[in-house]
Amino acid sequence: MNAIRNTLVAGLAVAALAASGAAQAHGWGGPRWSVGINLGLPLYYPGYYPEYYPPAYYAPAPPIYVQQPVVVSAPPSQVVYQYFCPATNAYYPAVPTCTQPWLKVVPDGTVQ
């Protein structure tokens, strides 16, 4: 009976050692303790997850308004007439009265 019990205990011990070696190989080794000195500088990678960037949003281009030019019609040309007296061969106001009908003359010299 002692032989069976010793064999069983030895088998369980070997299995426990094998399991603990496999567990430590995969990072399941249980609690670990360490002692270190921190000089104020992080000597490790600060984060496992990448930084979150919100999705880019591009606003639509604002509408383009083209103002149409304002068309201003030219005022009617105001022609200033001179009045010519053929009897005295002079213009009004140099001659205040004329014995013949006055002739309307455009400043460029044409008679109307």
Give a verbal description of the structure:
There is one protein chain. The protein has 112 residues and is α+β, with helices and mostly antiparallel strands. It is built from one helix and three strands. The protein has one helix spanning 2-25; strands at residues 82-85, 90-91, 103-105. A hairpin with a 4-residue loop joins β1 and β2. The longest helix has 24 residues, at 2-25.
Stretches where pLDDT falls below 50 for ≥5 residues? none
**Overall helicity:** 10-25%
Care to count the β-strands?
A: 3
- Major sheet strand order: 2-1-3
Please state the CA-atom Rg, rounded to the nearest Å: 58 Å
| Percent of sequence in beta strands | 5-15%
End-to-end distance:
153 Å
Structural class: alpha+beta
Number of helices: 1
Gross morphology is rod-shaped
Largest sheet, strands/sense/barrel? 3 strands, antiparallel
What is the gist of this entry?
It is built from one helix and three strands, in the order αβββ. With 112 residues, the chain is α+β, with helices and mostly antiparallel strands.
Features:
alpha+beta, 112 residues, 3-stranded antiparallel beta sheet, 1 helix
Q: How would you summarize the topology of this molecule?
A:
Elements: H1 2-25, E1 82-85, E2 90-91, E3 103-105
Antiparallel strand pairs: 1-2, 1-3
